[in-house]
Structure formats: structure tokens, C-alpha cells
Amino acid sequence: MKLFSALLFSTALSLCACSKNITSITPSSGAANPLGAHIAKTESKSQGMVAAANPLATQAGLDVLKAGGSAVDAAIAVQAMLGLVEPQSSGLGGGAFMVVYDPKAAQVWAYNGRETAPSEATDALFIDPETGEPMRRFAGIASGVSTGVPGAVVMLHKAHEDYGKLPWGPQMDGAIKTAEDGFAVSPRMASITARMGRFVLKDQKAAREYFYLEDGTTTIPEGFIRDNQPYANTLRALQDNPRALLEGPIAQQIIDAVREGPNPGTLTLADMAAYQAQKTQALCSSYRAHTVCGAQPPASGGVAVQSILRILENFDMAALGQTAQGWHVFSEASFLGYADRDKYVADPDFVPVETEKMLDTAYLKSRADLISMDTAIQDVTAGNPSDFIRGQDATPDNPGTSHFTIVDKDGLVVSMTTTVEAPFGSQRMAAGFILNNQLTDFSFRSVDSNGNPIANAPAGGKRPRSSMSPSIVFNPEGEFLFSTGSPGGNSIIAYTAKTIVGILDWGLTPQEAIELPNVIARNGRISMEAKGIKDETTQEVDRGSPAEEFGMSQEIVAALEAKGHTIRRSKGEFSGLHIIYRNADGSLTGGADPRREGTAQGL
Ligand code: DON
After folding, report:
1. Which of 94, 275, 430, 462 has its CA 20 to 30 A from that of 515?
2. Is residue 437 one of the residues assigned to a domain?
3. 401 is catalytic
4. Distance from the CA of 150 to the center of ligand 1, in angstroms?
5. How far apart (Å, rounded) are the C-alpha atoms in residues 228 and 250?
6. Does residue 147 sit within a domain?
7. Is residue 517 within 8 Å of residue 553, measured between CB atoms?
8. Phi, psi angles (nearest 5°) of residue 434
9. What is the atom index within ligand 1 of the atom nearest the CA of 492?
């Protein structure tokens, strides 16, 4: 049986390179696409807005908009600044997915800057050669093995070729100046530096020198003025050559850091030189009368957020409201959506991913029929939207990512989630920036306990599955309504879906939708922000967030438990949602997640 599955799988693999399933969207003609999406042109009446995870990054984006730059020009500025002032989350050494709405062409594009595995990688990338078992998770993260070819910058360059209004380069001036002058370390950067500093952040010389005071033992505190001349030098090199990370001396510095022990990686200059960002049409489907667009695989966020919503479409969420029944249905839809994405989503260049079948209305109605209003489904499993045999993947994620969104005066919309994966990625630096550990987003095991091959197993040149869910939502006329997305590892999907339900079904403002409690129903239990009553049976976890105030009431928690749900109460989840919403009069309203340090500001 194992052999049979493996054979089926390898047949699928050999077929798939040519069968990438990209669901197209329908331009302004108004005819429905197979998933009911409808995108039209949108008239712009605003000057623009930026919502990002750090005020310096928001300002850098606004400065570029003010100078006549487009939303894509501003995204380059925001990313350059975030890599400096929020290095725990994203940066030049990481990868990203970006969804762009072009309001004149009525098109939505998905840019893919996901890291690729070295050509020498095999499905045993994270198998300890001595034990034959998967490495301990943190040994995999803090290693050279975990670093893939960084794609965020070349992805931005590709989008700039399409939508840049300024020449490539000056967008980075603000970050260069801040790197040379120094910036005040933010509270969140200081606390995460201290937390990660207790592990291995000090093991690599470059990271130790950057993140520690001169005593070599104390991590840089809040308010410390940190400069970063190597980062400024790297940005200058990028101004001259957008591929400067992938060729020449900076690429060599990356390779050198990756090849250090322990667990050196095999990345080569040839792997770096071969990297290309991708552009496809976005994945779009209808939710009630609206249209939701997101990134394509290997991002699982697009298909997972949309399958949760399209299951919820079978319930009157507006009538259920923010009650135990409403959150029960939201949770059940999430369990079902996560189960499918765990099994079926991976890099479509290696494994066929049938997003259209996963989002099919009748299929998701059959999934919705599993939901009872009284009792939680026990042992949720993936459905069978397609005929492929897949092993069940259980890859975890970590807290180190950033989401930002920008609208410019022409109405061009950017929704971008960007990451080095874990806080401070692989815990290694080169040329002033953190190297990603994105390859730990692959499944460490290549077959599941039934012997079925896991779609998201590592392979040379493959991109690991992501939970990132940059999304753009359109009103029933097909015009831009709002953009949303979040960091938060695999919880991103639940965070993002929550905001769409909050705005469209519960009539909340963007800020109110962001401040709803985070409810993540995945893999047998619900993790949620709950008002802080210590529970004897479940562990209350303080994850360092001020989220008590966003917690779910104990009455709702108890009602969910009475239905059979297992609930892990948390004082805070790692969302960092940023939203820009277009009001009926064309003005923009932003929202920023108070669980992080972001701001939303218009011109
Ligand atoms: O691509 C992914 O899904 C993960 N590497 C994202 C990690 C993350 O969001 C951590 N967040 N706070």
C-alpha cells in the first residue's frame, strides 16, 4: 500500500510541473469566474494610506507616496525600513507574498517571493543523519540548513517593473539614512531580542555584535540607539543592482554564513543566481456577494482563508453574531479549512494543487454539512476535493513575520506579508541583515504515519508551503473594499479570516475587526485569547502580549467547551493585522493591531 501511494504520488509529481493550477479572475466584463469572483475598476478619491508594523516603516512609505511614488514604490521603502527596525520579523534576507490590485486594469496579481531550497536539498533535509529521525525543531531553525534563497527584494523589483512610478533606488534612501543615523530599539524588538538572546542569537559573531551590548551578554534594550552601516551599504548595493543579494560579494557573504556550523547548509552561488520571483493572477473567489483575493500556492493562506469563508457562507453569520454559536461555526469552519490545507497545499511547481476543487461550492457545502450547531465535530480530517493521495502534514510555524498594506492616490493596492520565519530567522546575519529559516516551513518528515507522502516535503529548488494570507476584498460591484493580512505562523489564516467575517458579516470597523479576540481552531483544539481566569485543566499562557483586553468572555468559552471543544486559553496571540478600508465616499480608514507596534496613517 505504501509503495502504491508513493507510485501514485510520483506520477503526480511528474505530471505537475506543467499543470500549475492558477485560478484566474475575471476582469471588468462582470461575467463570473468559476469561483464567482468579480473584479471591476475602482475610481480613486483618496491621497493614499500606509498601515505597517512600525511607525518608522509607515512614515517611510508615506514619504515615498508624497514624493509621487506608487503603492509598490512605497512597499519597497516600507520593507527596507522594516528590515532595519523590525529585524526579528522580516527583511532583505527573507521572503514574501504580495497581492496587488490594479484599479485601472481591474486585475489582481499575486507576486511570489518565497525562498527556494538549495538544489542539493532532498526530502531528508531536516533528518538528523545520526538518528534517522527529524531534527529537534530549534536545531533545524538555528542552522545553515534552514536558509533558502531570499526572495523578498527581487519580488519587489518584479512588481516595480510593473507598477513603479519612481526609478528603482530612491525608495531606500529613508532606510539608508536611518541605518546610518541609528534608530531607537522598540519595546517589542527589545523584548524579542532578550527572549531569543537566551538561546542562540549570540552563537554567530555578526549577530552577537549587533544584538548585544559591548559586554557580549546583555541584549540591546528598548531605546538603545542602534545603527547599522553594513545594512546601509547593502541597500546602496541594491539601489545599483536589484539582484545584489543574489550575485557578487553580498551573495558570497550569505553563502559563507549559511555554511558555518552547526548544521551548515548547502546553498550555492548558482542557487542564488537561478532565483526568480513569480507573478500569477491572484486566487479569487466569492464570499457571499463580495470577492476575496489572495496569494497562490505555495502560500496556503489564499485557499485556506477562502475555504473557511466559503464554508461559512452556508450559515447566517450576520444573524449568529459574536455569540458562542457564531464562534462555534467559525471554529468548525476553521478546523475543516486547516485540515485541507495541511494535506493538499505545497509548491505547485512540484505538486499539483487543485485550488479550484478545494474551493468548489458543492464540495464546501458537503464540508459545511458536517457542522452541527450543538456538538463539536470530533477528529476533523481533511476531505477529498481531489483524487491525489497525500500524507497529513503537521508543520508548525513561529512568531517572526510582518504584514503591511498600502493604497496610493491612483487606488493601486498592495497587501504584502513578509517574513524571515522565526524571530531573527536562522539566528545568523550577513551584510547587516538576518538570514531566513524559511525552509523549516517544509515538513521535516516526508511521509505521514500511514506511509503517505507529504506534499510539503523538502526538495531541491522547491518553495516551502506558507500560511501567509495577504488578502484584498472587493464589494459586490467588484470595487476595492479593503485589504487585510497578518503575521502569526499558521494562525495567520484564522486571524485574517476573522477580520473578513468581522467586517463583512458583523458590520465592524477595521479596528474593531482587528480587536476581536483571536480564535484559532486547528488540529483538534481551539487556541484563543480569553479573559484571564486561570483554568485548572488547560494551561494559561502568557505570550507577552497585552491581549487580555481582547479576550473572549468566560461565558462564551464555557459554552464552546459545553459543545465538546478543547480550548487552550491564551493571554495573547501573535497577530499583527493591518487593514486599509475604502469608505463609500472613497476616503480610506486604516486599522493597526494594538497587539504589535504598528500604525495606519493617511496622506
Ligand atoms: O510563511 C509562513 O507561513 C511562516 N514562515 C510565517 C511565520 C510567521 O508568521 C511568524 N509570525 N509571527
Report:
1. 94
2. yes
3. yes
4. 15
5. 15
6. yes
7. no
8. -80, 140
9. 9
Cα-based distances in Å from 72 to 25, 157, 165, 168, 228: 21, 9, 8, 11, 25
Ligand 1 probe mutation, 137, 404, 421, 522, most atoms within 8 A of CB: 421
Task: Report pTM.
Answer: 0.93
What are 353's three cell numbers? 494543487
Residue of 117, 66, 41 whose CA lies nearest to 436: 117
Distance CA 57, CA 83 (A): 9
Number of CB atoms found within 10 A of residue 379's CB: 7
User: Would you state the cell numbers that stand for residue 37, as one nine-digit string?
Assistant: 469572483
* pLDDT at residue 129, as a whole number: 87
Which one from 23, 219, 355, 401 is the annotated catalytic residue? 401
Residue 374 lies in a domain: no
Asked if residue 492 has its Cβ within 6 Å of ligand 1, the reply is yes
Domain-located, residue 133: yes
228-238 average pLDDT score: 98
Per-residue model confidence as pLDDT tens digits over 308-353 = 999 999 999 999 999 999 999 999 999 999 999 999 999 999 999 9
The parent domain of residue 433 ranges over 39-279+399-448
Give the C-alpha separation, 465 to 440, whole Å: 10
235: its cell numbers: 541597500
CA of 322 to the centre of ligand 1 (A): 27
Number of structural domains (the chain) is 1
